[in-house]
Design a protein that fits this description.
The strands form two sheets. The chain has a four-stranded mixed beta sheet with strand order 2-1-6-5, with helices on one face. A two-stranded antiparallel ribbon has the order 3-4. It starts with 11 loop residues before the first strand and ends with a helix. The protein has 199 residues and is α+β, with helices and mostly antiparallel strands. The chain has six helices and six strands; from the N terminus they run ββαββββααααα. The protein has helices spanning 32-41, 109-122, 129-136, 138-156, 161-182, 186-197; strands spanning 12-18, 24-30, 45-48, 53-56, 65-72, 79-85. Residues 110-199 are annotated as: Phosphoribosyl-ATP pyrophosphohydrolase. Residues 26-98 form the Phosphoribosyl-AMP cyclohydrolase domain.
């Protein structure tokens, strides 16, 4: 990757972001050698300004930052590195260097739910309701989505918001199960919505 290290005296800022939650975890600095080591090993290495040497994040704590993607900005003098962290990022033990919890926003939590659903499909358990749906097949899952949609419509006619929210959650859950059964990702449906929105 070609980056302009000379513009800022040999060091460039590297913003570290969790690839799953999209939370910014920390900011560090890299020289050419640190970037090359990071690219080669797939674990984030910085140039420590206080130690005046290369420093792999996690070298003492084992809280390594596993690289998913490295992007450079339009001026080629700043990096965005998306990672899967192996633990808290900050030396204080906090998830991020700003003291934030490294958790997805409400909508981002769907990624966690999708992963749980996929795990129930790939590693079925007799006790799992989700696994039992996959065992019954597409027709049964689709039927369940239809039932939940009807129940949501019925609750929409009443004024009980709690029951309505419960049925909405049931519908969304079963819809995600159906998508997984069909081998489709919810993000593909969002892409369709985005394409319609731009018209």
């Amino acid at each position: 990757m070609k980056v302009d290290f000379e513009k800022q005296g040999g060091l460039i800022p590297a913003v570290i972001q969790d690839a799953k939650t999209e939370k910014v975890l920390m900011l560090g600095y890299m020289n050419q050698e640190a970037l090359e080591k990071t690219e080669r090993e797939g674990i984030v290495t910085f140039f420590s300004r206080s130690k005046q040497r290369l420093w792999t994040k996690g070298e003492t704590s084992d809280n390594f930052l596993h690289v998913v993607e490295i992007l450079k900005d339009c001026d080629e003098d700043t990096l965005l590195i998306k990672v899967n962290p192996a633990g808290p990022t900050c030396h204080t033990g906090a998830d991020t260097c700003w003291g934030e919890k490294n958790e997805p926003g409400q909508a981002g939590w769907l990624n966690h739910l999708k992963a749980v659903i996929r795990d129930r499909k790939n590693n079925p358990s007799e006790k799992s309701y989700t696994a039992s749906l996959f065992e019954k097949g597409t027709n049964k899952i689709a039927q369940k989505v239809g039932e939940e949609a009807v129940e949501l419509v019925i609750e929409a006619m009443d004024n009980n918001d709690e029951l309505f929210k419960g049925e909405a959650a049931d519908l969304l859950f079963h819809y995600l199960v159906l998508l997984e059964q069909r081998g489709l990702d919810f993000d593909e449906i969002i892409d369709v919505l985005r394409s319609r929105h731009s018209r």
